[in-house]
């Protein structure tokens, strides 16, 4: 497979370091505020409903399989964390998408000395374009989500569900954040997906780091702007350069 897993993995740390740079700090505040509200909501939902979900799941477990209860609890807990982190990340980015686009532009200007090409759109049109781009991600995401949910109800095959959920979440985290610098540079959504697939290991490294960060308390509070900044650095160092080289 093409790409560099560790090059993608380390870009989130690069993103964290960029957040405090002059010319970038001011674009971080609104995404942080949105993240704070939504992750507060996710914590509330988990604290109120997780116990009930777990009791229902264990209620289906035959008594003679009671010895694997601890393993089932662990798998289900990880499954819920992945799904919640991924779902709320999508929601947060849908709301914050225009501001994330501005943040990606500021990071690109800081790193390269040049801003992305001018679109000629007004500010209101820019906001509308950002929302439509997020909806394009949802159109890509939902059919695959439904397929995974259906798979979870098929005997034997459903044992693969947690692994497939994790892999899909890694892929979608990469798409979610690398889309901001690529959209700023007028890369169409389908073209973006092909470029990410061509560099599978790099894409997987970045997506993995973001997914894991969304499940770490406190870190997940700032992961959205850090991922936007890190994805922009990755776009400049890998995807843009390779596209220009053909």
Observed structural traits:
single chain; 246 residues; mainly alpha
Summarize the SSE layout with pairings:
Blueprint: H1 5-9, H2 11-18, H3 29-59, H4 69-112, H5 123-151, H6 161-184, H7 189-198, H8 200-214, H9 219-245
Helix pairs in contact: 2-9, 3-4, 3-9, 4-5, 4-6, 4-9, 5-6, 6-7, 6-8, 6-9, 8-9
Descriptive overview:
- There is one protein chain.
- Helices cover 78% and strands 0% of the residues.
- The protein has helices at residues 5-9, 11-18, 29-59, 69-112, 123-151, 161-184, 189-198, 200-214, 219-245.
- Helix 6 crosses helix 7 (189-198).
- It is globular.
Helix and strand run: HHHHHHHHH
Secondary structure tally, helices: 9
Radius of gyration: 19 Å
Shape: globular
Strand-residue proportion: under 5%
Q: Classify the helix fraction into a percent range.
A: over 70%
Overall pLDDT metric: 83
Low-confidence stretches: none
Structural class: mainly alpha
Largest sheet: none
How many β-strand runs? Answer: 0
Distance between the termini: 18 Å
Summarize the structure.
The chain has 246 residues and is mostly helical. It contains 9 helices and no strands.
């Amino acid at each position: 497979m093409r790409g560099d897993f560790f090059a993608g993995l380390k870009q989130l740390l690069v993103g964290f370091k960029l957040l405090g740079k002059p010319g970038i700090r001011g674009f971080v505040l609104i995404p942080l505020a949105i993240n704070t509200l939504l992750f507060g909501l996710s914590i509330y939902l988990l604290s109120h409903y997780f116990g009930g979900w777990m009791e229902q799941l264990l209620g289906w477990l035959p008594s003679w399989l009671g010895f694997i209860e601890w393993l089932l609890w662990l798998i289900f807990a990880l499954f819920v964390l992945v799904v919640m982190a991924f779902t709320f990340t999508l929601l947060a980015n849908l709301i914050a998408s225009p501001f994330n686009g501005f943040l990606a532009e500021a990071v690109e200007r800081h790193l390269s000395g040049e801003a992305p090409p001018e679109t000629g759109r007004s500010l209101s049109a820019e906001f509308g374009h950002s929302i439509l781009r997020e909806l394009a991600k949802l159109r890509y995401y939902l059919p695959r989500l439904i397929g995974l949910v259906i798979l979870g109800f098929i005997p034997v095959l459903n044992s693969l569900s947690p692994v497939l959920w994790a892999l899909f979440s890694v892929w979608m985290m990469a798409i979610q954040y690398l889309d901001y610098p690529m959209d700023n540079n007028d890369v169409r959504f389908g073209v973006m997906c092909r470029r990410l697939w061509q560099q599978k290991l790099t894409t997987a490294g970045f997506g993995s780091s973001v997914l894991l960060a969304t499940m770490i308390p406190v870190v997940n509070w700032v992961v959205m702007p850090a991922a936007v900044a890190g994805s922009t650095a990755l776009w400049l160092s890998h995807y843009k350069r390779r596209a220009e080289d053909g």
